[in-house]
Design goal:
Elements: E1 2-15, E2 18-28, H1 35-42, E3 50-58, E4 75-81, H2 88-103, E5 113-123, H3 130-134, E6 142-150, E7 153-160, E8 177-178, H4 181-192, H5 210-219, H6 231-244, H7 250-259, H8 262-265, H9 267-270, H10 279-292, E9 297-299, E10 306-309, E11 314-322, H11 324-329, H12 331-347, E12 354-364, H13 385-401, E13 407-414, E14 423-433, E15 435-436, E16 439-440, E17 451-456, H14 466-469, H15 488-503, E18 509-512, H16 518-525, E19 530-533, H17 546-551, E20 557-562, H18 567-576, E21 581-587, E22 592-596, E23 602-607, H19 608-613, H20 643-651, H21 660-663, E24 674-676, E25 679-680, E26 685-686, E27 689-692, E28 701-709, H22 717-735, E29 742-749, H23 756-776, E30 780-786, E31 790-794, E32 800-804, E33 808-817, E34 834-838, H24 849-854, H25 866-881, E35 887-890, H26 896-907, E36 910-913, H27 926-935, E37 942-946, H28 951-957, E38 963-970, E39 974-977, E40 981-984, H29 985-992
Parallel strand pairs: 12-13, 19-22, 29-30, 36-39
Antiparallel strand pairs: 1-2, 1-3, 2-5, 4-5, 4-6, 6-7, 7-8, 9-10, 10-11, 11-14, 12-14, 15-16, 17-20, 17-21, 18-20, 19-21, 22-23, 24-27, 25-26, 27-28, 28-33, 29-33, 31-32, 34-37, 34-38, 35-37, 36-38, 39-40
């Protein structure tokens, strides 16, 4: 065994008094000529712009003294992934070295190579304190080594949880250790050896008291992580196994916990509630789709994603997930695996769709009032909001950009109640031929005798208990093993391989290994029965217990049902794409879920019917919120400020201002499908909807938009949900989407749902989903709910606190535009164009951005009139097809004047406006009227510009719709609102570009 440590420093990368060094540590199980060491190093750096230093070590060489690559440095912080975490850069480094050495004839395929990457921060000043070090790394996924230089010698000490996996004799937590490359290599190798676990299943005695049953569920088996099962569920399991005359094995109990978890079974949404026996999901969401009975729907609520018709040849499929809980612990890994997970949902739709677009919606805290801790001793602080935001953004960046999938649409919403748990919505759109090998592509089912085949990444200790963890509030009991870090390169290879195998008809069914791992993917596919041999599963960690292998959520894995006769060809295709394959069992019609450890030793044997349907239902009860709880108190802060100042400050508000700093981190041009983009016009204004061209030989496009409801829910969640639906539809329609070819996805994120008042709010929101989906005739095709978005911990004084995210609902709209050339952007086009407002403005400032900014006393939350809105949208569609709309922007947060400012900033023109011409319900106080007209967030309104020669045709088209011409576009770059304000466009642009 030889080891090489390579340090690479960019010559121009000094930031202040610090330097950033990329480190690669490589182990090779074969001796190599010394001249090869430098050749290997040259693979990792460019001598023109980088400096490189390497250390070589083998068992026959004495300790090699270590020194910093930058001679001015006095200390270093080396940040590395914990052994159980996926190291993508390290994996790539290993592949680079392996391919190079094989190509030169120095090694063969059997030589063992391992590589690890780390980030080394070098500094000049005083040595970082403990608090400084904590801010540099996330102990859930990383450990940090502080290297201190004194009198020409280096010493080191670990920080973080690495000592948890190092044998006791090597734990030197307090004393400084002399630094040498042999120490560093030895220690890292030690860390990679996991604690020995006997590969055996354990029987769990459930014939104990109710109190003991609750303890087993709460602490897990032998303290291995919470099962998250109710006492009723535990007693049902106890009764089932008593009938079998035995106790369950740990793997059986763990499998039931994952399958019955809130994350997988959606118990809250599916349980009887008040008078609704079939539950909110069936009664409101599924029923709406069933009653609408849209002819565009092909596959709804039954697969990994929802699918609708795109054209005669293709379906488009869509899925949106949340990764809130993982992102609270490890924002980078949580967001990254969220994106990769929804990409696999697309690949797992029907016989296998191809991902063509990613989307996102983030909910962050801007800051936190004080510090909060997971533990009473106040040693484990929650992650700072800024760190969470930066790392979530980075995670989505790596997942999408490295997969070659464009990230074309997204936004951010800020509320300080998201400091305990952020909301991280991630979505993916895909495309699939309607027919594959003369059979409908959306239909799949394993056949009796099909082999259970796992492809992609190996199984490890990362992601254990992810489903149960996501089904409860974040607290000090949340284990680090729930976190995963994805590998987009491995997944891209997997996706390509699946599409090739699909087109050859080599498998009968496919699904992804997401929440619950093998237990869920095989369990769902094998409802008729299956048998699995866990000894056939490829592992990345030695010494895993059977239950860990079975429920691990390690990433980049898909499960397929492959006929035995197709296995040789299937394996050949996987090898061609460098995708690992393991055949671990068989689907059958036994009606039983059977898992063996090895050599026929059965450790799980239960009826699939009990596995999927044995979970006892809860009957939930709601309690209406008292009226006074929904009244927002008046606050006259800023009442004396001029409207010009208010407009500028409103444009700078976090929920309104530009999110360009996020958008530019995502590649939206890869695949060449982007038509109307996330940034529009000369002023690069963020769009609320996009148009994409998935089939480059066709002019038909996909339209995708989002509508988010949160703040209005403080007053009424029914109207919040209605506004979210109308917002998604309004954004979709404004850009040119066909309202008659449109489907919706729902993502509920709720809090404290065992609280009857929160349940009442949830019921109100679900009721609105039914009412407005049916009124607009827009079916739901997919969705997801996340019910425990709470943080339970302690404040700076050690007092218990619970921070609940506000009830939130993301509605995604997806549909088509017949001709992408008809798409309309938001930037005004020409001086002289007329400016119109479609729809009525009402006194609706309740929980608006203006109310939150000014404190104005107004509890009138916006309401949706679906009948008049649908008529307006249908008429607008006709105007789009007639080509008489020059630009359009849906009125959203901030109201009319904010939408107007954005369209002018985007087009780089000014406007003359007369607010007295805006259609508004009757009022008397002129000052109040102006504020309402400018900032009301009344729904179903679109701001449109029309060339003067199209005025007559446009007004004829809308003659029985509420509209008004309120001004015109001007060459002078000034927003001039008659008798109210006159402000320079450049000032507006500067305000919009600043996040305050």
């Amino acid at each position: 065994m030889i080891s090489i440590r390579i340090e690479v420093l960019n010559k121009c990368e000094q930031v202040g008094r610090r330097w950033l060094v990329n480190v690669y540590s490589i182990d090779i199980s074969k001796e190599l000529p010394s001249e090869l060491h430098e050749e290997i190093c040259r693979l990792f750096y460019n001598g023109t712009i980088q400096d490189c230093r390497y250390y070589f070590y083998d068992e026959g060489i004495e300790e090699v003294q270590y020194d910093f690559i930058e001679p001015q440095a006095k200390w270093g912080l080396e940040i590395s992934f914990l052994p159980s975490m996926t190291d993508n850069v390290g994996n790539t480094a290993k592949q680079i070295v392996r391919e190079y050495l094989i190509s030169k004839g120095h090694i063969d395929e059997n030589v063992y190579i391992k590589a690890r990457s780390s980030k080394l921060i070098l500094g000049k000043g005083s040595t970082p304190t403990e608090d400084d070090i904590k801010r540099e790394f996330n102990p859930v996924t990383e450990y940090c080594t502080l290297i201190y230089k004194e009198n020409g010698n280096c010493y080191w000490r670990h920080h973080g949880k690495l000592q948890d996996v190092i044998p006791a004799r090597d734990q030197k937590k307090k004393e400084w250790i002399p630094m040498s490359i042999t120490w560093m290599t030895r220690n890292t190798r030690m860390a990679e050896k996991t604690t020995e676990i006997t590969l055996a299943a354990k029987l769990v005695n459930l014939n104990v008291s109710d109190q003991e049953l609750e303890k087993i569920s709460g602490d897990g088996i032998d303290g291995n992580g919470a099962l998250g099962l109710s006492l009723t569920a535990m007693k049902a399991i106890k009764g089932y196994f008593n009938k079998l005359g035995r106790n369950p094995y740990d793997i059986e109990l763990e499998s039931l916990a994952q399958t019955w978890s809130e994350h997988c079974k959606h118990n809250i949404f599916c349980s009887p509630i008040d008078e609704i026996e079939d539950g909110l999901y069936a009664h409101y969401i599924k029923r709406a789709t069933r009653e609408i009975n849209s002819n565009i729907c092909v596959s709804v609520f039954s697969d990994n994603a929802g699918g609708i018709i795109f054209d005669d040849d293709y379906l488009i499929v869509d899925k949106v997930e949340t990764h809130n809980s993982p992102s609270a612990l490890d924002p980078f890994g949580g967001a990254m695996t969220g994106v990769l997970g929804v990409n696999r949902d697309i690949v797992g739709f029907g016989k296998g769709a191809e991902p063509i677009m990613n989307t996102y919606y983030f909910c962050f805290a801007k800051g936190a009032k004080g510090k909060f801790y997971k533990d009473k001793e106040r040693t484990d602080e929650i992650l700072p909001p800024k760190y969470i935001m930066e790392e979530v953004i980075h995670g989505v960046n790596v997942a999408g950009n490295c997969s070659g999938i464009p990230t074309q649409l997204g936004s951010v919403y800020f509320d300080d109640r998201f400091c305990g748990k952020p909301l991280v919505f991630v979505g993916s759109v895909g495309i699939i031929p309607r027919s594959i090998n003369n059979a409908p592509s959306h239909i799949k089912k394993p056949k009796n005798g099909d082999k259970i085949v796992i492809i992609g990444g190996r199984v490890g200790k990362d992601g254990i208990h992810g489903a149960t963890f996501s089904s409860e509030a974040l607290s000090g009991n949340s284990p680090s093993t729930v976190v995963q870090i994805g590998d987009p390169v491995t997944q891209k290879k997997l996706s390509n391989a699946v599409i090739e195998a699909r087109d050859l008809g080599l498998y009968n069914a496919i699904t992804d290994n997401g929440a619950g791992g093998l237990s869920s993917s095989i369990g769902e596919m094998g409802k008729d029965g299956f048998e699995v041999d866990l000894s056939k599963v490829l592992l990345k960690n030695d010494g895993m217990a059977p239950w860990e292998i079975w429920i691990s959520e390690s990433q980049e894995r898909m499960t397929l049902a492959v006929p035995e006769e197709n296995l040789p060809m299937f394996q050949q295709i996987m090898k061609k794409h460098d995708v690992e394959v393991s055949v671990i069992g068989e689907f059958n019609e036994s009606g039983r879920a059977v898992v063996q450890r090895s050599k026929g030793m059965v450790i799980m044997d239960m009826e699939t019917e009990f596995l999927h349907d044995g979970n006892p239902k809860m009957h939930l009860k709601t309690k209406p919120l008292p009226k006074e709880a929904t009244v927002i108190p008046t606050n006259n802060a800023g009442i004396t400020l001029s409207l010009e100042v208010k407009l500028k400050e409103m444009l700078s508000r976090p929920n309104i201002c530009s999110k360009e700093f996020i958008v530019v981190q995502y590649d939206h041009e890869v695949q060449g499908s982007s038509v109307l983009k996330p940034l529009q016009g000369k002023g690069r204004v963020c769009s609320e909807a996009i148009v994409s061209r998935p089939v480059l030989s066709s002019n038909k496009g996909i339209v995708k938009s989002l509508g988010f409801g949160s703040s209005y829910g403080e007053i009424d969640t029914y109207h919040m949900a209605a506004c979210a639906i109308d917002t998604a539809i309004r954004n979709y329609v404004a850009i040119g989407g066909n309202i008659d070819h449109l489907a919706l996805l729902d993502n509920f994120c709720w809090c404290d749902v065992y609280n009857p008042e929160r349940l009442w709010q949830l019921k109100r929101a679900a009721e609105a989903c039914y009412d407005f989906a049916t009124a607009f005739k827009t079916p739901f095709i997919s969705g997801k709910d996340s019910m425990f978005n709470d943080f339970k911990g302690y404040d700076e004084d050690g007092k218990k606190v619970m921070i609940s995210a506000p009830p939130s609902l993301l509605i995604s709209a997806i549909g088509i535009i017949e001709n992408i050339e008809d798409a309309v952007s938001l930037d005004v086009k020409m001086p002289g164009d007329l400016i119109y407002v479609l729809g009525t403005t009402y006194d609706e400032l309740g929980r608006s951005e203006y109310q939150l900014y000014s404190g104005i006393g107004n509890n009138n939350v916006p309401k949706v009139d679906a009948k008049s809105a649908k008529k307006l949208y249908e008429r607008y569609n006709r105007a789009i097809k007639d080509g008489i709309v020059a630009s359009a922007i849906a009125l959203n947060l901030g109201g009319l004047v904010i939408a107007l400012a954005k369209s002018l900033i985007a087009g780089d023109f000014g406007a003359e406006i007369d607010l007295s011409l805006v259609p508004i319900e009757e009022m008397y106080n002129r000052d109040v009227i102006n504020k309402i007209i400018m900032f009301s967030e009344s729904q179903s309104r679109i701001l449109v510009t029309v060339a003067q020669q199209n005025q007559q045709r446009f007004e004829e088209l809308f003659k029985d719709i509420v509209f008004s011409c309120i001004g015109k576009v001007t060459e002078e770059k000034v927003l001039n609102i008659k008798d109210i304000l006159k402000v320079d466009l450049k000032d507006l642009g500067n305000s919009y570009a600043s996040l305050k």
